[in-house]
Design a protein that fits this description.
Elements lengths: L1 H16 L4 H26 L1 H10 L8 H8 L10 H12 L3 H4 E4 L5 E2 L3 E8 L4 E7 L3 H18 L9 H16 L1 H14 L6 E2 L12 E5 L4 E2 H7 L2 H22 L1 E3 L7 E4 L6 E4 L5 E3 L2 H16 L2 H10 L3 E2 L7 H13 L12 H12 L4 E2 L2 H20 L5 H14 L1
Parallel strand pairs: 5-10
Antiparallel strand pairs: 1-3, 2-3, 3-4, 4-6, 7-9, 8-11, 9-10, 12-13
Helix pairs in contact: 1-2, 2-3, 2-4, 3-8, 7-8, 11-12, 11-16, 11-17, 12-13, 12-17, 13-14, 14-15, 15-16
């Protein structure tokens, strides 16, 4: 019903736009975007479940949705009330086939975190070890599948109403993303893989998994006791803060260009700072959104970075094709050249190698909003990568560390180009 109402409003606007002037039509469309986005936000909060998760994920795709929708839906990150503990406890017992008391010496009723499809609780095992228990909201998987089916039907039905939004691509990407986050078995494998790849680093910590207590909908992990990244950064002196931020940047470059397993959700809430013998260490949490890239893909990203640094538009266009950029609606790929010019124009706004002078979040949002106007479909992995570095850029803008970007980035670029 809401989708039909929304489509009717946009169809009415199309009729109206043919009568009034272009400027009036543009103003009316912007107002329609704002009011419709607010209604969609309210609906997501009301229905929760899969719809809420889809709204949260959609808010990250500024390349696919108008900015009023991105701004409205981004507020959903703070609109997730906790599920009653009795339901969580019952689900854990049903999933493990054991009572809470037979597995845990203590299970905290108050959640450490509540999200649209999961909730995290602190607990203590019978042998005294501290753990966190990530529990999928009971019944949410079935709700998500129903919501995804409806999304696919509606995206096809309203293709003619919103042709510029590429709704079918949006539906496909959202479907893949939300299904990934429902697969706790895959997340557990990701945690183990990150432990293996980062084992040589003394400055980074990854929690251990308890596979004997984990299922497709319950994930039990070692609890890492540390301070939230933002809280630690706010109180730390630059002498301690700058090296930790360098570690954060370096380990991100290692993921993208070194071993190719990339944590796709590096917002500050997914990091803790842990005391270590040689100084503060960075703990990485939440591996529900992870991408694996082959050496060829890592090499292509490294070549793209070099082409951007050198302003080589022809090379960028070739690499866009190699990395999966394609024309929208089966058109030709001439728009890749236009996209390359767009990337270069955004990059030139911050051509310094001093991280303190960059504003990557603003540049990313500007680029994604412009990208909607090009005839090119941007791969989800590229948007994910942009979001990750924009999140890091936000931290650098806030704390302005004295770091040499080239000293961190260039060795990893060289490694990716030669291995």
């Amino acid at each position: 019903a809401e989708a039909a109402r929304l489509a009717a409003r946009y169809r009415l606007h199309q009729t109206h736009a043919a009568i009034v002037g272009a400027e009036a039509a543009e103003e009316a469309l912007d107002a329609l975007h704002h009011s419709s986005a607010e209604r969609l936000f309210a609906l997501c909060v009301e229905l929760r479940g899969g719809i809420l998760k889809l709204g949260q994920l959609a808010s990250t795709r500024g390349d696919l949705l108008p900015s009023p929708y991105v701004r409205a839906l981004s507020r959903l990150q703070d609109q997730v009330p906790a599920v009653p503990t009795e339901l969580i406890r019952a689900h854990v017992e049903a999933s493990l086939g054991q009572t809470i008391a037979s597995v845990f010496a203590n299970f905290d009723d108050a959640p450490l975190a509540a999200a649209s499809i999961a909730q995290v609780h602190a607990a203590t095992l019978l042998d005294g070890r501290s753990v966190v228990v990530k529990v999928q909201v009971p019944g949410v998987a079935a709700l998500v599948e129903a919501d995804l089916a409806a999304l696919r039907v509606l995206s096809a039905a309203f293709r003619d109403v919103f042709p510029e939004l590429d709704l079918e691509t949006t539906a496909t990407e959202l479907t893949r993303s939300v299904r990934e986050e429902l697969d706790y078995g895959q997340e557990a494998r990701h945690v183990v893989a990150f432990q293996e790849r980062l084992a040589a680093r003394s400055d980074v910590v990854v929690p251990g998994v308890h596979p004997e207590l984990s299922t497709d909908t319950v994930l039990v992990l070692e609890r890492i006791h540390g301070e939230r990244l933002i809280d630690w950064l706010d109180r730390a002196e630059p002498a301690a803060r700058d090296p930790l931020l360098r570690t954060l940047l370096d380990v991100t470059c290692e993921q993208v260009l070194g071993h190719g397993l990339f944590h796709g959700d590096p917002h500050p809430g997914n990091f803790l700072v842990v005391d270590g013998a040689d100084g503060p260490r960075l703990a990485i949490l939440d591996f529900g959104s992870v991408r694996a890239w082959s050496p060829d893909v890592r090499r292509s990203y490294a070549e793209l970075a070099m082409a951007i640094l050198q302003g080589d538009l022809d090379k960028m266009t070739t690499l866009f094709t190699r990395l999966g950029f394609e024309a929208k609606h089966g058109g030709d790929v001439s728009g890749l050249h236009e996209l390359g010019e767009l990337v270069l124009s955004v990059f030139r706004q911050g051509t310094t190698m001093d991280l303190a002078d960059l504003d990557p979040e603003a540049q990313l949002q500007f680029a994604l909003s412009l990208a909607r106007r090009t005839p090119v479909r941007i791969p989800a992995d590229f948007v994910l990568l942009g979001r990750a570095f924009a999140a890091l850029g936000g931290l650098f803008m806030r704390y302005r560390p004295k770091l040499d970007l080239g000293a961190v980035l260039l060795p990893w670029l060289g490694r990716a180009l030669t291995t």
